[in-house]
Amino acid sequence: MTDPRQAGSSAAAQDDDFRRAFDLLPSVSDGLRADPAPPGDGSPATRLHTDADTVERDLIRLVLTIVELLRQLMERTALHRVDQEDLTEDQEERIGLTLMILQDRMAELCERYDLTPEDLNLDLGPLGSLLPRN
Description:
Blueprint: H1 4-23, H2 55-83, H3 89-112
């Protein structure tokens, strides 16, 4: 049978180990803020910085980033289909007009929320940027 004094000291040692493990984690007492890692140091990406005052703008930025990515993919697909002579002249006109309207709407939304095209380009660390740089 085990001595109750040893069991108590063992539990205390486990508690100490548990506390030390959590001491290694970054503090989240000020929301989800974490100090960003220096670029290229091989450490994992930090969490999103959320702030109650900027959450709407941050959400708009994320949504517009996804829309811009899809817009660029559609544009490339359309250009490829034009090069392959896969479309009729009317289809080419409609696609071209649609892509121009979408680009204008994106510019309007970016202006409304004080965002630049660079703001929509997420840095994916070692993978590079999300959107191609012009």
